[in-house]
Amino acid sequence: METGRILAFGAHAADPFLAAGGTLAKHSLRGDQVVIVCLTYGERSHAFRLWEEKAAGKSSATVSDIKNMKKEEAKKAAEIIGADVKFLDFEECPLVIGRTELKQMVEVVREVRPTAVLTHWIRDWVNPDHAIAGESTLRACQYSGLLGFETTAALHEMPPFKVENIFHYTITPMRLAPEIGFIPDCYIDIENTIDKKIAALREFKTQSRPNLDIQVFEKHISYYAGYRCHALYAETFKRNWSPPQAIQYLDH
Ligand SMILES: [Zn+2]
């Protein structure tokens, strides 16, 4: 079987680990290449503990310091689940993705040539930057296949690549979120990798909350998803698009 190449985009460093850490670890164990792309570090919106400490005068960490901390957290988390991680360091709050940023995203797609792409759900307006990241990923995947979309790399060095499989995720609890139209149609059994996922999430200390035990929280969510698909623990995804298929009869 050909080795897979899984490319996961996240608006903020922790997002792909939260939504898909068990699935990414599972692919890594299968021998697939797994690449996580952090569009931003989440230094302003996903560093709750540090900003509370700064507001209370208990920390003098600068934004640059917070970025570095989150970068180290993501690198350690990626190592635990067996993934490579790239940081594009876009501005966040708001996350604005124009032509320059899209070119960088297309270059990553053309470089990795993924057999599957993961990204945010495009209507995940609970955090609008998540929705922007999801929509921008769809654009990057589309433009990646176009000869006419040029990046800074020469086309013969980084030729176009057509993405066949795109899956959306949400980190909005409970990962089955009808309020944003996220009704998953794919469930991945993560019984064998949930411990790796939780170990990876524990690395994100900058965004820990005093009243939230990440192990209890994530196990509950994964258990609930698993219950729906007869697995002990599962993660939820929504396929972006499936090509229409002609079938001969309704039951075959
Ligand atoms: Zn996020």
Concise synopsis of the structure shown:
With 252 residues, the protein is of the alpha/beta class. It contains seven helices and seven strands.
User: Based on the structure, what is the oligomeric state of the protein chains?
Assistant: single chain
What is the CA-atom radius of gyration, in angstroms?
Answer: 18 Å
Describe the main β-sheet briefly. 7 strands, mixed
What gap, in angstroms, lies between the N and C termini? 26 Å
Q: Uncertain regions: pLDDT < 50 for 5+ in a row? A: none
- Output the helix-strand order: EHEHHEHEHEEHHE
Number of strands: 7
Summed over residues and divided by their number, the pLDDT gives a mean of 92
Helical content band: 25-40%
Shape: globular
| Strands side by side in the biggest sheet | 3-2-1-4-5-7-6
- The share of residues in extended strands comes to 5-15%
Structural class: alpha/beta
Q: What are the bound molecules?
A: zinc ion
Helix segment tally: 7
